[in-house]
């Protein structure tokens, strides 16, 4: 019933493969930046002519677009909160996997140390058997031999 020695890399690989099969969702976030910056100075547009007739904010389509509605503001806040929650979950998941990786590596290191210690103990036991056999052989072969302890 001999066990095969496994490397710590194989253990880590199996842990990650096993965890990646459980969570197989892939999240792709695309960012676009369409703003352009130019070094050239563009002339300022001429100021609009003064209105000849008084206009109200409700009649002016530009003024209506500038004021965001309460629904848009709350929707934007909810979207930001959901995205921040998503980022926090992803960071927490990465931290958890890092802690698991550290535990696996430390466990492999401890197992390796215990294996080395066990081999040293076996070597000392074999050495003790050899010394005792030599003492017994000297004791039986020479009648006046007194072993030194």
From TrEMBL:
Residues 34-59 are annotated as: Disordered. PROSITE patterns: IQ (PS50096). It comes from Artemisia annua (Sweet wormwood). InterPro entries: IQ_motif_EF-hand-BS, P-loop_NTPase. This is IQ-domain 20. Residues 43-53 have a biased composition (Pro residues). SMART domains: IQ (SM00015). The keyword Lipoprotein does not apply. Transmembrane segments: none annotated. One of its GO terms (molecular function) is calmodulin binding.
């Amino acid at each position: 019933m001999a066990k095969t020695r496994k490397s710590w890399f194989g253990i880590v690989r199996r842990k990650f493969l096993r965890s990646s099969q459980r969570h197989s969702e892939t999240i792709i976030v695309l960012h676009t930046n369409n703003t352009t910056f130019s070094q050239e100075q563009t002339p300022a547009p001429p100021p609009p002519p003064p209105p000849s007739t008084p206009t109200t904010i409700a009649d002016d389509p530009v003024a209506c677009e500038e004021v965001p509605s309460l629904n848009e503001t709350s929707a934007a806040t909810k979207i930001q909160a959901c995205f921040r929650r998503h980022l926090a979950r992803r960071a927490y998941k990465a931290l958890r996997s890092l802690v698991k990786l550290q535990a696996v590596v430390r466990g492999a290191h401890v197992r390796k140390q215990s294996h080395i210690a066990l081999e040293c103990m076996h070597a000392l036991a074999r050495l003790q058997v050899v010394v005792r056999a030599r003492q017994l052989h000297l004791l039986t072969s020479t009648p006046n031999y007194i072993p030194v302890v």
